[in-house]
């Protein structure tokens, strides 16, 4: 395959144009400037301004937030976190014990604070056990579990008068079955707000 002279010249011009287009201008860059850009780095200590789309000085600056506003925002975030924790109302126990698990403590503290802040609220603690053991033993175990949660709530701010305990033992299983999975879901205390 023979290439004509004009084809060779065209290919050389195309290659030269490609190389020229990819080369830099050779101008030195200033500190904080991105390559090929006239934008400088953002001063991280000064905060940020968000443009609201209107003409003029319509930006909202994060540095304009007062200490009171920051405190109010933090309190609101904490209240939201506490409310989310209170969505959990069932607490599980290991086999043949009434010891509260460490992962349940933060949630129970959120419930105790809620009860302390709302003295007109009442809660019923329903203790349950799995089907293993006698009915009498499981009723007593459910009662011990409910009383353990009651003590924890009282120590963390709730009033004794706000809390009622009841044990159902093995009579109201959450899950039917005779497997470890079913038993684990039945060993519980449920908080029922009235």
TrEMBL record:
- One of the record's GO cellular component terms: cell outer membrane
In terms of superkingdom, the source organism counts as Bacteria
Domain OmpA-like, which positions? 80-194
**How is this protein situated with respect to the membrane?**
Lipid-anchor
**InterPro entries in the cross-refs:** Bact_OuterMem_StrucFunc, OMP_bac, OmpA-like, OmpA-like_sf, Pal, Pal_lipo_C
UniProt record, GO biological process: cell division
**Entry-linked SUPFAM superfamilies:** OmpA-like
Signal peptide positions are 1-20
What does the record note on quaternary structure? The Tol-Pal system is composed of five core proteins: the inner membrane proteins TolA, TolQ and TolR, the periplasmic protein TolB and the outer membrane protein Pal. They form a network linking the inner and outer membranes and the peptidoglycan layer.
Report the protein name in the record: Peptidoglycan-associated lipoprotein
State the organism of origin.
Answer: Marinobacter oulmenensis
List the gene name. Answer: pal
